């Protein structure tokens, strides 16, 4: 049996003297979709930074496909199949769409065809010569997401990829996530649209004040209870709010 695609073991991390993540244990089984939910400032982006190699944990280990990659840079983790789609799109606005897409193809990839991205996002075909900064927000996000369609990553980390987009564009973005999931790509999704995230996810982790406070299968999760947790101080305190037995208690 294949081991988890990603495992965080006892991870703590922060900025300077400020600890943001505390003793995080998280696992993404191969070919599964995991949603990481939590209120603003809970530590979701920081967790994705640690998983992608942009930040080193102060304590704990990061394993990708059972290999310890804690001290590996993002480019080395990409070789292990880890692909980060960062918050804020991370594209080069002053380069053309074609140049952006070419830069997303990993250096070891022999095939430099743009087709894997253009088949998913045909709207980009007529914009290849345009500066990325001139695209609509939705098309810029398509350029950003294209990275996940080059080099066959085994794990894609997605930070708020639907942020600020019109609902029809959000549909296209989620369609792309469904395509990746159907191919067996493991996904870790940080997403403001809780119901959309739960619709694609197999498993959910809730993070509050830098700690995992609940985890469970998305099928067993009561969305209303999740929203109550978002809004409730119980989330911060790590105490389950009354009357939501459908939310599983985490293992910690
Ligand atoms: N570069 C940084 N330097 C210092 N503190 C930071 C930095 N980035 C984030 N923080 C702090 O770390 C904490 C967690 O931030 P993080 O961005 O990981 O949370 P988040 O759950 O992704 O929030 P949001 O949903 O608002 O993006 C916050 O208190 C934030 O202010």
Account of the 3D structure:
With 252 residues, the protein is an alpha/beta fold. It has a single domain, classed as Rossmann fold (3-Layer(aba) Sandwich). It contains 9 helices and 10 strands. It has helices at residues 44-52, 74-79, 97-104, 115-120, 137-146, 167-182, 194-200, 223-231, 233-237, and strands at residues 4-15, 18-29, 33-37, 59-64, 67-68, 82-85, 155-159, 186-190, 203-208, 211-217. The strands form 2 sheets. It has a 6-stranded mixed β-sheet with strand order 6-7-8-3-9-10, sandwiched between helices. Helix 5 runs parallel beside helix 6. The structure holds adenosine-5'-triphosphate (ATP). Adenosine-5'-triphosphate binds next to helix 1. This is ABC transporter ATP-binding protein. Belongs to the ABC transporter superfamily. Keywords: Amino-acid transport, ATP-binding, Nucleotide-binding, Transport. InterPro entries: AAA+_ATPase, ABC_transporter-like_ATP-bd, ABC_transporter-like_CS, BCAA_Transport_ATP-bd_LivF, P-loop_NTPase.
């Amino acid at each position: 049996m294949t081991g988890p695609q990603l495992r965080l073991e006892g991870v703590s991390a922060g900025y300077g003297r400020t600890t943001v993540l505390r003793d995080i244990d998280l696992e993404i089984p191969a070919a599964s979709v995991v949603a990481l939910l939590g209120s603003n400032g809970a530590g979701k982006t920081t967790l994705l930074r640690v998983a992608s190699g942009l930040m080193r944990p102060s304590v704990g280990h990061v394993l990708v496909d059972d290999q310890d990659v804690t001290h590996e840079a993002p480019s080395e983790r990409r070789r292990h199949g880890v692909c980060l789609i960062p918050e804020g799109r991370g594209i080069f606005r002053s380069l053309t769409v074609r140049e952006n897409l070419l830069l997303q193809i990993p250096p070891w990839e022999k095939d430099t065809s743009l087709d894997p991205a253009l088949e998913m996002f045909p709207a980009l075909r007529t914009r290849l010569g345009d500066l990325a900064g001139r695209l609509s927000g939705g098309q810029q996000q398509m350029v950003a997401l294209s990275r996940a369609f080059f080099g066959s990553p085994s794990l894609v980390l997605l930070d708020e990829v639907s942020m600020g987009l019109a609902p029809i564009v959000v549909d296209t973005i989620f369609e792309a996530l469904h395509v990746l999931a159907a191919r067996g790509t493991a996904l870790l999704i940080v997403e403001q649209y809780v119901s959309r995230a739960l619709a694609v996810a197999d498993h959910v982790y809730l993070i509050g004040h830098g700690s995992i406070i609940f985890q469970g299968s998305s099928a067993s999760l009561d969305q209303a209870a999740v929203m109550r947790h978002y809004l409730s101080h119980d989330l911060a305190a790590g105490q389950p709010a009354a009357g939501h037995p459908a939310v599983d208690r985490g293992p910690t």
